[in-house]
Design goal:
mainly alpha; about 0% strand; globular
Amino acid sequence: MPPVIYIAFFAVVLLAAATGNLPDSMLSGFAVTIVLGGLLTWIGNLIPGVRDFGLPAILCAFIPATLIFFGAMPENAVTVVANFVDTFGFLDFFVMALIAGSILGMPRTLLLKAGPRFAVPLIGCLAATFGLIGLLGAVSGFGFVEAVLFIAAPIMAGGLGVGAVPMSEMYAARTGGEADAFMGDLISAVVLANVVCIIIAGIYNGLGKRKKQLFVGFNGHGELLRVKGKAGELATPPKKDISSFISLGKGLVIAAVLFVLGNLVAAYLPALHPYAWTIIFAAAIKIFGLFPQDLEDASSEWGDMIGAILVPALLVGVSITYINIGDVLASLSNPMFMVLTVSTVVIATLTSGFLGWLVKFHFVEAAITPGLVMADTGGSGDVAVLSAANRMHLMPFAALTNRIGGALVLFVTSLIVPVLATAS
């Protein structure tokens, strides 16, 4: 877009927000997030070297939250974007497009070969992280149970919705306290871990652009499996440069109906999150060949378009809606808390990468998902991490990781909580 026109667009949005005249609607949400996200991405791409390590994504994820912290963002814009992301469902809109497009656009053989192997790095990295962080907490004086319940568990639950929020209620019920008393520490751990996840994802991306393989099977440059197969069987197909309006329309409808179907089934079978049901149905469609090729292509093209255009917008929306810089700064006041939080992410990504490598995944891809994806803030964190790593097509595996891994973490946490009650 010509710079003069872009500046004019930015000025219009800023003036409307500053005067309190930004309508609380979906269109206003698109205007604020796309315009601000585009500006921050452009700035991040101006700096050579660092831009390869996820700087544009990091700026989009944290600059808006920082502006809010210093009172430099109009309240009108904050309210509009928060409603856009939460109430109007922009996060669902984005994630569903990527899940449907990635699964239906994935080679069937890749889906069948990668799925069963995924349990090894997922469960393995959880066990290793809980055990090692507990031991580190015990040795440092922080406490084994405290390190597991207040740092490893909320971080590895795969999001605030299945981590800090339910855990605070669980801890309060067991100890007789108030959930708010636990919420601050739990959220601080999750948010700080998310920052570390984004930075490490950017480092993985930068290493990939250097085209260096530290060892055999280290970097798949986006390809999850390193299993040999027939030509084209296991490789992700290249993205198309163009698509028809009708094809994109089909893709939108497929993503929307899969989302509705996932929520419908979750209403009667709530053991799994709607995202998990959506993944299951999309995978079934792909495995059993229920769609003709043109519908699979349409879904893939719609997901590619959303991923190409709206990633900066979503990161800005997530930053404004979910990230509290005050919580991040508060967590820095306890050095051991910070050490344990950073260690949780590092242990998760390295053990996941190693275990994934053992079952024929590429190390970097397995270190990102399930590794980093387990330790970020869930759906929004997945987008930030995969964007920084330049591997958005791994979104289905990321979403599956969060839902299955999150449920497993909550179950294990529920078994440990009585020890916390005894200690208190």
